[in-house]
Queue: 3 jobs
Job 1
Amino acid sequence: MNYFKQIFSFAKPYKVYAILNIICNIFYALFGTLAMVSLFPMLNVLFDKTKQTNTKPVWQGITEVKDYAESYLNYFVTQKANQGHDDVLIFMVILVVSMFLLKNFFNYLAMYFITFLRNGVLKDIRNALYDKYLELPLSFFSEKRKGDSIARISSDVQEIQTSFLSILELIVREPLMIVFTINAMFLISVKLTIFVFIFIPVSGFLISLIGKSLKKKSDRVQQEQGYFLSIVDETLGGLKVIKGFTAEALFGQKFRASTSRYYDYSNTLLNRQNLASPTSEFLGITVISILLWYGGRMVLNENALDAGLFFVYMGLAYNILTPAKAISKASYGVKKGNAAAERVLEILNTESPLKDKPNAVTKPNFTTAIDINNVSFKYEDEWVLKNFSLHVSKGKTVALVGQSGSGKSTIANLVTRFYDVNEGNITIDGQDIRDLTKHSLRGLMGLVTQDSILFNDTIKNNLLIGNTNATDQDIIEALQVANAWEFVKDLPNGIDTNIGDSGNKLSGGQKQRLSIARAVLKNPPIMILDEATSALDTESERLVQKALENMMKNRTSIVIAHRLSTIQNADAIVVMQKGEIVEQGTHEQLLQNNGAYKKLVEMQSFE
């Protein structure tokens, strides 16, 4: 029931469409019932069963509505016949057609209005899910398959719209159709209607037995879909490795195993779901058959029911079958959609541990220093940093060096608050970064990572991520600073050239220079360079190194370096081993120490 509340909360902005849908459904149910009832006067005229009367009937109250309607019909037909009209049958045909026309007109309007509500809810759930993906920390996705996240925002949300939200259409229309139809059936014959109600609970019980395992089976289908989407994502991202290691058969086997499981799970689910319609129809026609026997006895043996009314009654009884089938099908849909809703709401209800505090401060500028104070941090069980402290004054460049796994990149993740420290704190101008809004904190920083993260778009749009208000001239100047203009200007469309998925139309060095240009365009007071030159060849490294030195002037920079030749001019070099500082000083000082730094330099000199 909680799922209902949360999903339906997304329908609030579209309540006008819901109200219009309800109004149209009321008229649909009303005219749907009248359409069947209108067959009775036509049958009477057709079989000349109309009683001749010239006395206009008098309204005796709602309890006598059946007798009043029948008497008024007889009076109306008699008057028409006395006036010499031979078109009474045509009039009755027009009456029947009009009732069915109005029924279907309001049915269309009801579906028209509900479309805006359903698609609006679909849009808003997807938007909320995407916003949540952007809000959740990197640690959340390190434990999730990317394909599973894609499945939740695509197929799972679609399943909510098609299955779970189908209840919105049925919540008024089908119950009202049943209520109006049953009222008409009671007016025709109380005895026969009570007889019908004996069989309805039996039918409902049999139908409910089928749907009990649908949620569990649907959950398996959606999980498997997320798994094979992950395989597709990993395959497309790693085609070069797959082909290089001739692993096509291995990955093909893995994918086919997943699609085979999906095939089996889907068959089980759909076959169970497909039982809903034939089962409810068979049970319905069984009730109709029993009605034919019992009602036929009332007409033929007991003379307790008019033959024309019995035909109308049978039509009304069958009229219940359609909404009853729709309700039973919707109940299966809800069970199936329940699994999808559970997976979507699992994400939406996840609280981000990095959420801004209610009283978080917006920090517009950077004035004095960054301080890392006795910080300890672990991603899982093993400590990556232990009592780590570092002071970075404004305008200074501090380089972090050390072997892989020493904790260098972790510092960048903590300063940008992609993760929160386990112990200690990090301050900017004396303010704990956990007391600042993430948006303003990261607004002070430019980030260039080891992996050139670019998007399938133009060079211009990739750089505008750094500054959405930049002009073309600003972009060109940033490219010149990053020594990227030399190749961009020769591209077919210049800065408007599309660089392909992940920038794969460019070389590694070109991609990295665009990443640097993006950081230059942002023009932040703090630069964080996480092995920014490691992907470059020697010539590109020389070009970019000069650009980085120009860019870092008058800025505070934290440089994580693999190649030590790129950080010789840093104001301070911090040598790290296993999450701790083992040496600290300038390039010359550390060489004189004959310690860990000198060993690293000597090792690289032989590379």
Job 2
Amino acid sequence: MKKKMGFMYGIIALIFSQGIIKILGLAYKLYLTNREGFGDIGNAIYSSGFQIYALLLTISSIGVPNAVAKLVAERKSINDTIGADRIFKISLIAFAMIGFTGMIILMRGANIIANTFLQIPEAELTLVVLSPSIFFVSIISVIRGYFNGLNDMNAMAKSQALEQLFKTIFTVLIVEVIAIISKTDVTIMAAGANFATTLATIVSFLYLYYYYKIKRTEIKKQRNHSKNCRHESAITTLKKILCVTIPMSLSSILSSLNKNIDSFTVVRGLSKIMSSEKAKIQYGILGGKVDTLVSFPLSFNMSFATALVPAITWAISRNDKKDAIKKIRFSIISSLIIALPCTIGMIVFSDQILNLLFPNASEGTLILKLSSISIIFIMLEQTINGALQGIGKLKVPAIALSIGVSIKLLINLLLVPISREKFFFGEVMGAVLGTVVCHIISFLIGFYILNKNIKLNIGYIKILKIIISSILMAVLSSKLYYVLTSIISIKMATIIAIVVAVIVYILAIIILRVFDKEEIISISVGKKIYSKLPKILKYSNKL
């Protein structure tokens, strides 16, 4: 593209789109959970089917954008536009075929998966209606990766936001129609909610096809000025694509498998100590409400991991290791700034958040408290994995996560069938503990390897400042909440306390000078922010 997007511009574009995506995603999940006739049972059916779909989707496409972005960025860094375009076209054909295969497997195997593996027969229909999405998302992933490699994050940002918008609209419309026709049949309602996903992916595909057609003329002009072209056979290019895609996809596959461990083991394990109906409700709490809340802040951080891969690849290709380290360090600190207050905030206000968002099904306080601990480790793990992939350590994230997932599986098998009366970490809490331990281990391994290859020198004073800011936020907002509950309603007190928590945290980050002048100015609107700071807090003279 003529006008290259900067690293921070790309991140901000993705954060903005992810903000829209998560708000819309939370909106339809609130609607489903609070909808009469759906609730935690509906969430169990919806989530179990969706996790199987997500696993097959991961195998066929999820790791593809970063892999394609890395290969395209390598070609573009030496001005080989023809080579970048060839990688895109071969990837498109290959993953369309893989996606089609995944679609057929899910469609044909829905009955066996639902009845034998999940032990939730009601999930069969949800799997069938989701299956076409695998084909479309496989194609979508290649197109997004291609534009990411060209440092054009608009394709991913806008297509993801558009997809989530239509998913939310379609979910409400379809479920409402089904609820009226079927007299709130939860099985058909859950299938309808997942069918909305399929329709939304088709909309996203049509948008990206249109976007590519608009950019095609510009791409053709760049092909005419392409240099350092290195012609390779289709088989050689495909091997190169798969050599990068497979290890990068493997970590995504393992992340999806991590979720599927719960879908395979929780209902099965809980059924040994409680009724099948109660087991599904417990899984619905974990897979529906809690996972939705925990994953809400994670998507914002994915912007750093997504933008890091092509950015570091470009820097390494130019032998600019200093720039690569600077981007990695900034991303890790930024991830921590997002993660820590989210973790602490959800632990402190878990009960209030559940009652505010899910008034008709607010159970799960302890599950949310413990699950929130995983936020910080998953976020740091995402960013570190992006950095490792950018410097060419493609296998490390997969190896680290495979160790973590193996330990989670063991914990689930041992603790889920144990009653909470005998051991605190029994039942669903055992599955939550498994998830937390999994991501702690994966983070520690990834950080050790990254720091061994690139001396990060993050600066532990900054980390201490973030911890102090988070604790200050938690103390002041919780005190305010308990004062307000004697004056106004609990819901209004919760909203005000959370808003004040955000303000207190941002001010503490500014006052404690977590970011220096260079880091602030590196942000797209950093110069404007920096110029205002002296007026606000006499900040600039000492930076």
Job 3
Amino acid sequence: MSVFVFGHRNPDTDAICSAIAYADLLQQTTRPDAVAACCGPPNKRTEYALERAGLAPPRIIMDVRPSAEDLCRRDVVTASFGESFHEVYQRMQAADLRALPVIDDDRQVVGVLSVLEVMKLFFHNDHDPVKSRTISTCLGKIHDVLGGGFQHLVDPARKDELMVMVGAMSAEGFTDRMRKFPAELLVVVCGDRPSIHLPAIEHGVRVLVVTGGFTLSPGLIELAKIRGVSVIMSPFDTINTVLRIRSAQFIDPVVNRDFVTIDGKASLAEARGIVERSSQPVFPVIEDDGRLLGYSFKTDIINPPKPRLVLVDHNELAQAVSGAEDAEIVEVLDHHRLGGGLKSTQPIRFINEPVGSTCTLVARQFRAAGITPRPEIALCMASGIISDTLFLRSPTTTDTDRQVLAWLRELCLVDLDQYAQEFFEIGSALRSKPPVGVISEDCKEFTEHGVRFSISQIEETGFDLFWERKDDLRSALEEFAERHRLDFSALLVTDVVSQSSLLLLSHESEAWEDINYPRLDRGLYELRNVVSRKKQLLPLLSQIITPAHA
């Protein structure tokens, strides 16, 4: 199972670029199965960064809880009506299976076959000595299981209900017994006994099976042709020949046609509900058109393997991809405060340092491993640093960020000064997105002193578009807070030119009187020299909503 490297929900450039770069490093070092993923589409600036770097965006996965198709076994081994027990059992034995799905020519599931059900072909009608020797098969299947050869052949593909008789008694007694049954239903099995061969051929039996590797004389073969009797040579002794003939029976009568399937798109909970109510040994997993996709056993659904995650640019489950609480977190690489809810069953690598960008930490991991990133990965990491530190102008910027970006500058094939200017000019959320899209683009949820709230942040070149859309944005914030059951929602609009921000709130309490920044309108504040959600705004809000102010 792959290890998915995830940034936070509503991912920004640093979240996506750090996931891509760190997955690339892990692939070269300790986890070749690492896959970069994100729980939301890249914004315009991130798309621009990836396009300039020539990198594909990460795989979008909105929920890591596996579906039925994620858990099912794709190395499908199946059976079909008209196949013999022998060929199906060999297939099951080779794959170490105790059951498998039965499909038709269009891969539609038509039944389920288990080893226990197949054994009924050998032990059916034990109370009736005649019916217990009756088999449903064709001569072609008998020939295949014996591995011998035909001395004469009549209609080998015809499906017959045949009764097996062994020529082990006296010739006279066997002949009298044989003549009590219709000749066209009889399979006569015996060794080198012409005294049995001749009356069987004269009776016109369906097939004469000669065991021990013996053959019929030319005269008897000519008579068999005249009487329409097929002759099969078996290299095995009589006992083993009879057993093999029984294994040539069609599986059709013992296929369970009253079965249940699992939709490939079904959630794990839905699939578990199906398998817990059923005693079926194997569960076919089907596609939307009903065709077989794979199959699962009950243990696959009841005790599935946990998805494995590496978290970058966050460490709080509230900000992680849906289903992360049920996953195995194997590593964390972040530059934010420690949040709640994250647990592990064993020690994990947890890197959390006060730098301006997670991409800074990823780049340091490249250097520590002695690996020089490819130019496209270097530009990817540089983009994350440029975005999160506002090209080293944010108060969150550290000397480590500056040193790492200087190192990456030498590896990139573009002029980073020109690139950074283009990067911030691209993808104005206020210009290209509806109000709810502006709020959702880079939104994180927090809990402080029992108060749940969200902070969204966008970077713009000037505030002109904000003033045009202020009222719509406030309404969207109010709806967002209500929909997500938050105490309030905030939007921080940062001007990368003036290095200042405007803070718009869904609503305020009396505590906001202590914010000590100019109030421009209802729920709107001017925050000069504030550009960092993490280092400047979040501590400010935390102070305002302390129990003394709440």
